[in-house]
Each structure stands twice: as C-alpha cells, then as structure tokens.
Amino acid sequence: MLLIMGMIFTSCQDSTTSTFTNNETLSSLTTKNGSYAKSNGNAPEGLIPNSQRYADNSMPSASGRDGEVTVTSRALIDVAGNVDLEVTTGELDSDDAPGTLTKLQVKALDIESPDKDEPVWVENYNKLLDGGYYTNSYSGLERGQQLYIHANVKGIIRGTAVTFMNETIKARPDIQVTEVETGADEFLVDEDVTITAAIAEGNGDLGASTSCVLYIEGEEVDRADNVWVDAGDIVACQFTTSFAEVGEKNIVVSAEDVLPGDYDGSNNSVYTTITVKEAETGGSNDFYWGGGVFMSSDSYYERRSSSFYEVRESANYFIYFYGYKDLPANFTMPESFSATMHTDGETAVDVDLELINGYYYDSTSGISANIGTWGNRLNFNFSINSYKTVYYGSNDYEGDFHSDYSRGPQFQMGDDISFEVEFGGHTQSGSFDINTYTSEYEYDFGPNDYYVYRYTSYNGYGSGQP
Prior knowledge:
The protein is mostly beta strands. The chain folds into three domains: 8-49 and 173-277, Immunoglobulins (Immunoglobulin-like), CATH 2.60.40.10; 62-171, Immunoglobulin-like (Sandwich), CATH 2.60.40; 287-464, no CATH class. It has no helices and 33 strands. It starts with 7 loop residues before the first strand and ends with a strand.
C-alpha cells in the first residue's frame, strides 16, 4: 500500500480555521483578541492536489457502444449485500446523461459458469422515459457475479441505438480512517499540534473521493474535501492547530461524503485525546523545541528481462528543528553554535556555525541553519534537505550504464530522530519517532522477466519543554 501520495495539509486554531491543499497557495490564520492576522506563503513543491488521481487502479466499469452512442454501467455491492446498478449514457458520478434510455434488460449470470443464454434471472424494464440515467437495487447477488445488460437509447442518433455489456459486480470502496497520530500526548497552550490521519481504501476494487474532517470536542473545526484514495491504497490527511485553554482535548478525524458511496460506514472515524498544559518556567536551560520530518521518502525499482536489467533508487529527506529560550538581559552571543542530528543513534548531520553580523550561518549544500535573538529571546532553527538518485544496469544494445546525483548530507532514515544544539553553555536536545509506511509490488512475467517496486514514506513530529 502506498502512503502519502496525495497528502493533505490544513491549518486551524480553535474555532477559526483556514484550509489549504497541496499546490495551492497556503494561508495560515490565527486569532488574537477577536482580530485576524493573516500571513501567506507558497506550498512546498511536489505535493499533489487532493482531487487529482495520483493513481487509479480501480476495476473498470462495463460499457457498450453503437455508433456515436456509449452506455456505461456500474454495479456495486455494500457490506449488507445490497447491489446498486447504474446505467448511464454519460459519465458515472455526473449529472450529464444525454438522450433517453427507453428499454433495459438485465440478466444475472451464474457466478460459476456465466452464460447470457442461461441466466439465473432476467428483468425487463420497458417504456422508460426518465432520460439517460437509470438505477435500481437488487439483493441475492454476489461480488464478482456478472450482469449482462441490454440497453436501448433514443435521442442521440437517428432511430434507436442498441448496446450490450457485461458488468461485474464490484465491492463499493471501503474508506476507513485507520490511525490518528499527534506525535505526543501533552502540549503547551498555543503550541502547534500536528494531527495526522491515515485514510485507507480496504476492498481493492474501486478508488473513491472523500472529505477528511477534523472534530475537536465534537465540533467540526477543519476539513479537506475531494480527497482521492486509490483502490487498496492509503493517503495521509494532516491538520495543524493549537489550543488556547488547558485540559484534555477530544480529537476525532472522520472520512465523510464518500463518492461513489461507502461499503461500510462503521469504520470511518478514529478518536484520540491529548492534554494541553500551561507553559512552565524553567532555569538556565529553559528551552522549548519542535521538529519534524516532512514529505520524506525513498524508493527502489528493479526491472529484468531477457535483454536488459535496470535499477532505480532514490531518497528524498526533509527534516527541520526549531526552538527558543528566554535569556537574561545581559546575555552575550557566543562565537559559535553547533547542531548535530542523529538517526537511529548514528550521526547523520554535524553543523558548526560562526557568528556573522549577529547571526550564525551555514552555507553547506542542503542545510539551512541560523540562530539569533529577538528582545530577550534566543531563537534557533535548522533544516536538512538531502536528495539522492542512482540509476544503473545493462542492456544488450548499450552495455553497462550507471548514473547518480546527490545533494545535501547523505544518510539513511531510521526509526527515530534526535538532535543536540549547543551555544555559549546553553544546550538542548530532543528526539521523536518516525512513522514509516512501505508498499511493495512484485510482478513476475516468466523466467528472468520481472519487476519489483518498493516505496517508503516517512513522517513524524516532536516537541519538548523544560
């Protein structure tokens, strides 16, 4: 299963929300004393709009054609065994259906030995005058069973168009919210809380569009609409919010408005809680920090046939950390600042910055880092963006080949991330777990003829206080 191929990002604060999705312009909205402060920025590159079908492995619907007239049918079964048949002269899930379906014949074929001349039953619908769309419901049928459909259409071409088709009964898409993560159990007042939900399609016959909706204390506070989930796949839906009051907060993420209808509506929500606390005051190392892994993934593709062999490997990691500390009025900026990142305990990035014009800078490829003061507050942040692709193999025409490209620090993503920063005797460290989602496909076309594809995505978020 492939995760975060169509990742959704929304932001909200208490009951005031603003949403943004993927390649659109981001708009973050915060509330203070009844007034709004709005700041705009650009969405990170590489995200896919919610409604775009990043992939579509749905089983096809049946269609029949007579000249310029095409009739399409779709039969879907739900968890209770109800089968809904749709027949249209237009597109499925569209209101546009030209002409008029004047006659329909539906034959239910035997599931073991389908034969249109020996059906299980036959239903005839004559003198239909309701346009180019028809629907009906049936019971006693099974997933995988075939319906043989004869449809007559008038009003598109001269005379009557006659079409025939074999539609296989498919399971409705079973859209499920399988997991909700917040990265921690406790947060501070006004601290950003990132809520990530996994939305899966569980039947594997059809993909579906859905709305990912965030509820806090039973109230809808944000949503992302028209989220496409491919058949048998998983996508991530992510919200960022904060809380102005302390206490336990009840969080629910639901998948709603499933099109073309849900197989089972009982698995569409997941519930979790967090605790919001007052910010604490601390001593000499009174730091607050946050960090995360964003749109990070690696993949492996191997293809072999009798005439060629190729391997494509890629890794793309984006990791960020930030924090602040209240300082005494007589604080003097030290001459250096160091930051180290570990993955699974191994040093992945080691940064040393020098003081230049009151700020610390690092110009290393793929690393952005600085630290500075604002009033009596010391702020630090640094991010790592590493990228690598490798392509190699051989074929009968060109022989062996190899190419690679990399940017930024090179390391292997693990199950956890930790960091340490040090400046002028003031230190801070932190760690958080990485959520890993891997999908793998293998196709065997015969002896020495196959391909393997593996895709792993990573995300995680952590925060700390004194």
